[in-house]
Amino acid sequence: MLFLLLLPRNVCVAILRAYRATISPLYGDVCRYYPSCSRYTLEAIQLHGVVRGVWLGARRILRCNPWAAGGIDDVPDSHHHRYVVTPFGFVTPRPAHESTATARPLLSPTLHSHAGIADTVGAHTLRAHVHGKG
């Protein structure tokens, strides 16, 4: 039953993954923000669902313009971590034996493919460096 509830979210994930694999490379690295607008929208949908994720992604795309200062702009965190992300990016229910207190955050796998970041620690190091703290 939960599979059907997560189906729209995972359809959007598949569409964004296809876009990121085929169309996005044609544009090159043009986004003023980190992560890129397509990565931000993908993470927002994975974390918050289709409606709020698309809304957050659309707001981000409107902010990404030639006059924007840019910088690091992370997806707002969710207060509940009921799901996990597969290596491909699909959202699945958290296993019953895995407590939410000890489980890894939902977005840790999605940071891997952007800018060659190997893990979440690497992403935090990059963010600290960009902000002049590293």
From TrEMBL:
Recorded topology in the membrane: Peripheral membrane protein
Pfam families to which the protein is assigned, alphabetical: YidD
UniProt superkingdom: Bacteria
Alphabetical list of InterPro entries matching this protein: Membr_insert_effic_factor_YidD
Subcellular localization: Cell membrane
Keyword set, alphabetical order: Cell membrane, Membrane
UniProt keyword Signal, yes or no: no
Listed NCBIfam families: membrane protein insertion efficiency factor YidD
Family (UniProt): Belongs to the UPF0161 family.
General function of this protein: Could be involved in insertion of integral membrane proteins into the membrane.
Designated name of the protein: Putative membrane protein insertion efficiency factor
Species for this entry: Frondihabitans cladoniiphilus
Native organism taxonomy: Bacteria, Bacillati, Actinomycetota, Actinomycetes, Micrococcales
